[in-house]
Hints:
It is built from five helices and no strands. The protein is an all-alpha fold. Helix 2 packs antiparallel against helix 4, helix 2 crosses helix 5 and helix 4 packs across helix 5. The chain is elongated and about 50 Å long.
Amino acid sequence: DTCSSRTVRDCLGSCQGAGPALIISQMLARLTSPYMIRRWDYIDDQDGPKSSFYAFMIQAKLLVTRPRVIIAVSYCFIVSTFLYGPYLAVVLILAVLLFAH
């Protein structure tokens, strides 16, 4: 059953198919970035070929504040809830954060 013949209100939280799944998977993949930058320290490799990149990532931890991580999680929760409902949204976000940990 697709949402094409129903109103938007009827479709909230009950989407099916590849489209919503691709949106959610890409969004949740991008949730790991601010979480992991905030949570883990980068190793400073001053002698390697990518030393300037690593130096930037060490400074990036200062840019990714706790409120930014909260905003990213909230955004993922809102969109996931809109497409699949609040229960599955919480399960997906917790699974992503658990596996990123």
